[in-house]
Amino acid sequence: AQDVRTASLGIMKAWAFYSPSMAWFAAAGTCLVLWVGGRSVLEGKMAVGELVAFLLYVGMFYEPVSRLHSLNQLIQAGRAAGERVFAILDAEPEPGHIPAAGLRPLPSRQDSSRQVIFRNIHFSYRTGKEVLHGIDLTIPSGTSLALVGPTGAGKTTLASLVARFHDPTSGEVLLDGVPLPRISLPELRREVGVVTQEPFLFQATIRENLELGKPGASDMEIETVLRAACAFDFVQALSEGWNSKVGERGVRLSAGERQRLSIARALLKDPPVLVLDEATASVDTATEKQIQQALDHLLAGRTSIVVAHRLSTVRKADRIAVVEAGRIIEIGKHDELIKKGGLYAKLWSIQSEHAELHTIEDLFTAS
Ligand SMILES: Nc1ncnc2c1ncn2[C@@H]1O[C@H](COP(=O)(O)OP(=O)(O)OP(=O)(O)O)[C@@H](O)[C@H]1O
Ligand SMILES: [Mg+2]
After folding, report:
1. CA 223 to CA 226: how far, in whole Å?
2. Residue 128 carries which DSSP code?
3. Is 153 in the pocket of ligand 1 (CB under 6 A)?
4. What's the gap in Å between 293 CA and the centre of ligand 1?
5. Which pLDDT tens digit goes with each residue over 172-196?
6. 157 lines ligand 1 (CB under 6 A)
7. Residue 67 has pLDDT above 90, yes or no
């Protein structure tokens, strides 16, 4: 940030110097011509018309010069931007991404999913204090685990470790018994699918956005996942169907529509392990139903870690872990947790009294 500040200050200083000095030279030139020319006219050596013509020539001379000057500015700005882009393109993966002990192939899969284990995970972001304080979790192959807890508890952080968006400060995450750092990144990307809280769509056609999940997917496959994600009808209604452009310069999609497209993308990718950070944006009941149905299709038969905000998602999960301040304070099936009478049971008792509360956040706020 300091560098950016210095650089932009530098540009502004140069600009502040160049542009008045250009104007100054232009004005001085005109004055000089007027001074010398005016005297010649008075002395009768030159006609007034000649002086006027001369003044026009001076103007014509300065115009391209000042244009050259702004061109130079454009080039400078472009070069600076280019340097930044190439710096990113040339960036080496973080040293932590190169395993000290060598890569290990994942065992061949028994079924369409894999087991995930968190072993004594501690985590802090580079800048801050510890966010996760010793997490131990086993998610059996093909089952779903819902993470619930108040905002800032560390749910997103915990879930993102599976995709190696970060590495734990200590402890390890294992996929079918293989520690994540020993799995090559391309293989890990194939194994773990991610649907984030704020679904991201590129400025491209719907089809191109979906194909990120599986390059070269057939029309048939695209249609199947759009249907499974309850997105087929609204896509069909667009003027160019799935060849319509989305994003800032394309069709505007609602939060619920974007979410279903990102679910369709994950379905197309069909990864054995899925990390889902459920969106918090509120949608109407009909959309809610469609998203729920889309999620059911997405989660079926997969190992999944779901940061859950909807009560219906939590209710359907195989197991629920209540996360509070970086620790798992309760874990179990819905019925077990209700019987236990802890925080989870308390949340549901609030819900039964207040039907208007629809999200986990509402319940934590009310408790
Ligand atoms: N990139 C980051 N850098 C530094 N601290 C972060 C970063 N992301 C999150 N945190 C901090 O880590 C803690 C856990 O954040 P996290 O996003 O995992 O919470 P959460 O349980 O997902 O909350 P929410 O329900 O609001 O999404 C918070 O105190 C947050 O401020
Ligand atoms: Mg979160």
Report:
1. 5
2. S
3. yes
4. 28
5. 999 998 999 888 888 888 899 998 8
6. yes
7. no
The label of the residue with tokens 């889309």 reads 294
Query: For the chain, which residues make up each domain, given as ranges?
Result: 2-90, 116-366
Shortest-distance Cα residue to atom 1 of ligand 1 = 125
Q: Which residues contact 206 (CB under 8 A, 6 or more apart)?
A: 235, 238, 241, 242, 243, 244, 246, 261
Residue owning tokens 């001074």:
35
| Dist. CA 351–CA 280, nearest whole Å | 18
8-state DSSP, 106: P
Q: Which tens digit of pLDDT belongs to each residue from 70-127?
A: 888 889 889 989 998 888 887 766 655 556 567 777 777 766 788 999 999 999 998 8
| Whole-angstrom distance, CA of residue 326 vs CA of residue 328 | 7
Distances (CA, A) of 299 to 163, 286, 334, 351: 17, 20, 17, 25
The alpha carbon of 367 and the centre of ligand 2 are apart by a number of angstroms equal to 19
| Ligand with minimal distance to 154 CA | 1
Q: Is the CB of 132 under 6 A from ligand 1?
A: no
Of all protein residues, whose CA lies closest to atom 4 belonging to ligand 1?
125
Q: In what order do the strands lie in the sheet with 178-179?
A: 130-139, 116-124, 170-175, 178-179
Third-level CATH fold of 116-366 = Rossmann fold (3.40.50)
Shortest-distance atom of ligand 1 to CA 361: 25
Ligand 2 centroid to Cα of residue 152, in Å, is 7
